[in-house]
Design a protein that fits this description.
Length: 346
C-alpha cells in the first residue's frame, strides 16, 4: 500500500487530490473548456492562474505548460499550493510516520485546545475539533524536523481532512444548527507532486500583474460581494495559527485580505488588471449570477464591462458554457451559464 493511502473499515482510501474540496466558484467542471480555448499557435511555456482559488486550473495546466504560477490572497490556499507543488524535497517515511502517530494519539483522551474551545459543537464535533487542534499544535513542534515542503504537505493535509467533515454547506459563513450529525475526523495526506516548475504567490492580483509575465493568464476574480477571506475564515485561522479573538455567531477573526473585486470599484480594478497584464493570451471566467435575488450574489461587474475592457486589450471571443453554480437556496439559477472570454493580445 502506498504511504499516501489509508485504510478505513478495511478499505484502502486514496489520498486527497487538489480538487477534493468544497469551494464556491470551483472550476473543476470547466477544465476541458479552458484548455481547448487556447489556440494552437500560443506558446506553452508559462501559465498563470492569478486568482487561483482551489488551484485546479493551474494544476491542470501542468499537462500542457512547462511552468505554472499560482496566486491567491488566502493563506490556506497558498499553503495548499506549496504542499502540492512547492519547491524542496520531502521524505515519504517521515510523512507516513507523522500520519500514523497522529492517528494513534487522537484516539486517546486529549485536552481542550484553541480549536476545540472555539469550534467544537459548531463546525465540528468536540472529538474532531480536539483532534484537529492537537495535530495543528504538533505541526508546530520542531522535534518532528519538517522542512518547509514537508510542513506545507502536512498542513495542507490537515486543511483537507478538516474541510471534508465540516458542518457547513461548503463555506464557513455559518454552520448548520439543526438536524446535522457530525462526521468524525480522519487524518489523511494529500498527494504531493515532485519536480513541478511552480511559482507561488500570495499577493494582490493587480500588484502581481505589474511584476510577472506569462504566455497565458487565466482570470477568475470574485465578481460579487462575497469575500473569500470571510467565507473560509476557519481554514485561514487553522493555517495561520495566530489564535485570534473570534467574534459573532460564525466566529470570525478580525477583517483582513478584502478584495476590491467585491466592492463598488470592481470595474476599475478589472480594467487596471487587464491593462497591466503581460501575456499573449488572457482567458477570463464569468458567471451570470448578476440576476441573483441575493444581494451578496449580485455581480459587481457585468458582461458589457468585461467585454469592453478585454476588447481594448486585444481580439476577444466569447464562449457560453452551461454550468451548475453554488447556491445557498436564495437564488434560482435556471439556464445558468459560465462565460469564457478569450483575448489574444494585440
Amino acid at each position: 500500500m502506498s504511504f499516501l493511502e489509508v485504510t478505513v473499515n478495511n478499505k484502502k482510501v486514496a489520498p486527497f487530490d487538489i480538487g477534493n474540496r468544497r469551494y464556491i466558484g470551483g472550476k473543476s467542471a470547466l477544465l476541458g473548456a479552458i484548455s481547448d480555448s487556447i489556440p494552437e499557435h500560443i506558446n506553452r511555456g508559462s501559465f498563470c492562474d492569478i486568482f487561483a482559488g482551489t488551484g485546479v486550473v493551474g494544476a491542470s495546466a501542468f499537462n500542457d505548460f512547462e511552468s505554472v504560477t499560482f496566486n491567491d490572497l488566502l493563506f490556506s490556499n497558498q499553503i495548499i499550493y506549496k504542499g502540492f507543488f512547492g519547491r524542496g524535497t520531502f521524505s515519504q517515511g517521515k510523512l507516513e510516520s507523522f500520519r500514523n502517530e497522529m492517528a494513534i494519539r487522537i484516539t486517546k483522551p486529549m485536552k481542550q485546545n484553541y480549536f476545540s474551545l472555539n469550534f467544537a459543537g459548531k463546525y465540528f464535533s468536540e472529538t474532531s475539533a480536539k483532534s484537529i487542534g492537537y495535530i495543528r499544535e504538533a505541526i508546530e513542534d520542531l522535534s518532528y524536523g519538517f522542512n518547509n515542503r514537508e510542513r506545507a504537505i502536512v498542513l495542507a493535509s490537515l486543511i483537507y481532512s478538516s474541510d471534508r467533515i465540516a458542518n457547513t454547506v461548503g463555506h464557513y459563513e455559518a454552520y448548520r444548527k439543526k438536524g446535522y450529525e457530525f462526521k468524525e475526523f480522519e487524518f489523511r495526506l494529500i498527494a504531493p507532486s515532485r519536480g513541478r516548475k511552480a511559482k507561488i504567490f500570495r499577493e494582490d492580483a493587480n500588484e502581481l500583474a505589474r511584476k510577472i509575465s506569462a504566455d497565458v493568464v487565466y482570470i477568475d476574480p470574485p465578481y460579487n460581494s462575497r469575500q473569500y477571506s470571510r467565507f473560509y475564515h476557519v481554514l485561514e485561522t487553522l493555517t495561520k495559527w495566530d489564535k485570534p479573538l473570534l467574534a459573532g455567531v460564525a466566529l470570525k477573526p478580525p477583517t483582513e485580505n478584502m478584495s476590491e473585486y467585491c466592492k463598488v470599484g470592481a470595474v476599475e480594478a478589472f480594467s487596471d488588471l487587464i491593462e497591466n497584464l503581460d501575456a499573449s493570451l488572457i482567458i477570463a471566467s464569468y458567471n451570470n449570477t448578476y440576476n441573483s435575488k441575493s444581494s451578496s450574489s449580485k455581480n459587481k461587474i457585468e458582461i458589457a464591462d468585461i467585454t469592453t475592457i478585454l476588447k481594448s486589450k486585444g481580439k476577444t471571443r466569447t464562449r457560453e458554457i452551461p454550468h451548475k453554480h453554488f447556491s445557498a437556496g436564495y437564488t434560482d439559477f435556471d439556464n445558468h451559464l459560465e462565460y469564457l472570454f478569450i483575448t489574444e493580445i494585440n
